[in-house]
């Protein structure tokens, strides 16, 4: 009897959580699907975003992401290579770097926003700009990205390191030609997760990339990210709900695609590791 | 010591990249402290967190009511999310059939990746009108806690799931060998055995809730007042920064940086507890 | 087939004499190996002769593999391992502090117990080490790849699929590819750490034949647990044993002598299968 009750409660809660998720998705579809069309995606916002579309918003979002990736990718990869391949686990500075990254991963996003506003915006003189927003997001996604890359590199079969060393290859060449390609699935998964976080982020962008909904002409222009657009339409623009819901639906679709990609890539990685272990 | 030429060039460059990344943290802390500095020297830190009168135009920067609102919203969220998240983990780990398991995991992962602004929008356009019929204005402490609970539930569920999965197989075999019924196994053996990791995950979820801005900004109502009831609108520290940063100057701006500093400090304390409970780390 | 009794000339090592008149190629003096202050191999003195196959035999854990990886300083990659003593190669102590390890390892190649082809194409596996030593000419690279693949008997099997990922090859093919990869740099010495132990019996026999065919052209040092194999392939054999938990070299000599008239009672016991 108790056993059945237990099972019943668990199934109920599990279903409840699933219902909440479905309710959420249904709400977006219900309010936003009618508005979401190619015309909506490809036209300029008008009347504070109530009418028209979101093309300039999409361009700004992509530009911000591009800046984020251009900054975070090389820096993050280099750091991960140093941590995984060029230092012992208990190396003094490596430990300090890991601690700093873990702390950074906990800093609230609104505080990243304050930091980006004060440092990139005012101190570096970038003002409200795509550049300022992108760099702020780069700082934000670095910790998780570096961690995933480091774990991915450490998971690479050690015999390839030995093989390369036995052929008289410098470490950095082994990293470049063999270890990084071998760790590529883990690195891509980390990257996709980072892109997902950056796309979903709002608070850190409000005071860095700004609210201007015109088409950004360069990275020094202010640009409104999709998430900021959703916030602004729903909170500050009466009658902007339909456009907000449609934008939110699009954002959710982007996140789902990224999630599925990360899933597939991780499966690939685990699968490949498994087949290597068996070989 | 011999080092190949290529490595001799690469190693300091890579180390420099890593140190730059670590330096970002130092920079963040320095920037936030220097932004907060004018307020910190003009007023005792204790006043910020014990005084409830936030009248920026009159130069009064007491954050107590917003601090309380932040903490209360967080508590409501974790009280809801912790039991449900743990149950979701039990469901995936022990109860669900294999195919359901996969789908359900994906659903939880999807919820984990849900942009907080989308959650906020859902709260604002779907939940608030519902609550409004019964207890206007609808925007409230409780509702913010509920939407936040949806947001942090995946954190609890996924960390608990990882904890269950990392329990030794021997434990599971021993429990089954004794002929104990499944719910007794789960409640009396697996949950206690995984309790440290589950608790650590709960702390991480609380830290996320405390640091979250968008959800509370959109559904908590943003009225600066002492939270006197569950259905009252409140304003949290994070929402306050988001609302006032746009026009704040001088001392007011500095006070907002103080609240950022306070938030960061609280979140980091929770995260370090989480790390300590879980035990191993590799920077000790 | 070439055999030490008939004498043979030495391919790339033209200046050397036949194997029957041994010339030291690697000369090991007072070599000791420690892991975290614990001695695993104590005071080994041994000459490895040019163009010959030297087998290292003995029970597990007696320091054979450590000894082998001390010869191209791969042991440096093991944390906590320290080495004292000297290894002279081409008239130079490889343990002097500024020794160019890349050059050393290109001259002294290594084959591992588990085949470790890189997760790249067969072609890239062989081209990568060549590019590293500065060979850029595509024709030359292709020529060298064809030569070594023929040398290890893989050419017929793989020449039409050089762009296939090397990890898709069978275990035996992978190991022969690894040998080809070491040979493509034209090393003088090849160190082999139980190269057949992870392979099935048929592949193992193919790789063994390949090792025998290297005799005379390369100096080969091979660690093996398989005494019959050691007997079949080796010109010289070195027997290691644990004494008071420390690995020691007990006996070294011509393989025939060591297997048929061991001088040491421990060796005799081990070969008869009474110990080890």
Give a written overview of the molecule:
The complex is a heterotrimer of chains A (279), B (284) and C (276). Chain A is globular and about 70 Å long. Chain A contains 12 helices and 2 strands; from the N terminus they run ααββαααααααααα. Chain A is an all-alpha fold. Chain A has a two-stranded antiparallel ribbon. Helices cover 77% and strands 1% of the residues of chain A. With 284 residues, chain B is mainly alpha-helical. In chain B, 76% of the residues lie in helices and 1% in strands. In chain B, α3 packs across α9 (195-211). Chain B is globular and about 70 Å long. With 276 residues, chain C is an alpha/beta fold. Chain C has a single domain (24-271), classed as P-loop containing nucleotide triphosphate hydrolases (Rossmann fold, 3-Layer(aba) Sandwich). Chain C has helices at 64-70, 101-107, 122-132, 138-151, 155-158, 171-183, 201-214, 227-233, 255-260, 265-271; strands at 24-35, 38-49, 53-57, 81-89, 92-93, 108-111, 189-193, 219-223, 236-243, 246-254. In chain C, the strands form 2 sheets. Chain C has a 6-stranded mixed sheet with strand order 6-7-8-3-9-10, sandwiched between helices. Chain C starts with 23 loop residues before the first strand and ends in a 5-residue tail after the last helix. The model of chain C is unreliable at 1-18 (pLDDT under 50).
Characteristic terms for this protein:
heterotrimer, A: mainly alpha, MetI-like fold, two-stranded antiparallel ribbon, 12 helices, 2 strands, globular, C: 276 residues, alpha/beta, four-stranded antiparallel sheet, 10 helices, 26% strand, disordered N terminus
**Beta strand % of chain A:** under 5%
Structural class of chain B: mainly alpha
Q: What is the CATH H-level superfamily of chain A?
A: MetI-like
CATH-assigned fold name of the largest domain in chain B: MetI-like fold
Q: Briefly, what CATH class of chain A?
A: Mainly Alpha
Q: Helix and strand succession of chain A? A: HHEEHHHHHHHHHH
Number of strands of chain B: 2
CATH class of the largest domain in chain B: Mainly Alpha
- Tally of individual helices of chain A: 12
How many structural domains in the coordinates of chain A?
1
Question: How many structurally independent domains of chain B?
Answer: 2
| CATH architecture label of chain A | Orthogonal Bundle
Instruction: Kindly provide the radius of gyration of chain B, computed on alpha-carbon positions and rounded to a whole number of angstroms.
Output: 23 Å
Query: How many whole angstroms does the radius of gyration of chain A measure?
Result: 22 Å
Helix content of chain A: over 70%
Largest sheet of chain B: 2 strands, antiparallel
- Mean pLDDT of chain A equals 91
Continuous helix count of chain B? 12
